[in-house]
Design a protein that fits this description.
Layout: E1 2-5, E2 14-17, E3 20-30, E4 38-45, E5 51-57, E6 61-64, E7 68-77, E8 82-85, E9 92-95, H1 97-100, E10 112-118, E11 121-126, E12 130-138, E13 152-156, E14 161-164, E15 173-177, E16 182-186
Antiparallel strand pairs: 1-6, 2-3, 2-6, 3-4, 4-5, 7-8, 7-10, 8-9, 10-11, 12-13, 12-15, 13-14, 15-16
Length: about 190
């Protein structure tokens, strides 16, 4: 076990509390004008899947579990779960649907992800930070909107909703951040 400060926790990290392992689903730092900055963390207990929320001071020490983390290439999805292959050894692993969760929209054949395992079981998946998606539909630009500050809703071909600048239209390929679904830039291809 490694002690880390609460503010350094990220989605996919595994922490130990009261002898049980939890995988971090969401971590957010709050810095109020007055008072102590805190970190709010939504977690899922690995043993039974129960979700819990914890709040720590950002400087508090938290036990981070040592898990095996390796790169895997996504192959396909079936009733069992999501099948991944380790590129060096060609060893395959099945990641359950509840572990992948909302990240399934970004899994296309050949996408390289980090899969975290504990005692041989997949407990968390870390998607690439940025992915390219194609826009399926967008709302029309409202007259008088300035391009510098306003974004409009759009839906990508994989079903993900994202806010894009007014000049992005259907068929455009864009790069988005998988952590917060924010627009990064137009794809260079």
């Amino acid at each position: 076990m490694v002690k880390v400060i609460a503010s350094s926790l990220r989605k996919g990290n595994v922490v130990e509390m009261d002898g049980k392992l939890y995988v971090v689903l969401r971590a957010e730092n709050f810095h109020p004008g007055k008072g102590t900055p805190t970190t709010s963390v939504d977690m899922r207990r690995i043993s039974d899947g129960v979700k819990v929320t914890e709040r720590w001071r950002t400087t508090e020490q938290v036990e981070r579990a040592n898990v095996d983390e390796r790169e895997y290439d996504f192959l396909y999805e079936d009733g069992e779960g999501f099948h991944f292959m380790e590129p060096e050894t060609f060893e395959q692993i099945v990641v359950p649907h509840d572990v992948v969760g909302e990240g399934k929209a970004f899994l296309t054949e050949g996408v390289r992800c980090f899969v975290k395992t504990f005692e041989g079981n997949a407990i968390a998946i870390e998607l690439p930070q940025k992915v390219v998606v194609e826009i399926a539909e967008t709302e029309p630009v409202v007259k008088g909107q300035t391009a510098s500050s306003s974004y409009k809703p759009a839906v990508a071909t994989n079903g993900v909703r994202v806010m894009v600048p007014p000049h992005i239209g259907p068929g455009a390929r864009i790069v988005i951040n998988t952590e917060d679904l924010s627009y990064v830039e137009r794809a260079k291809d």
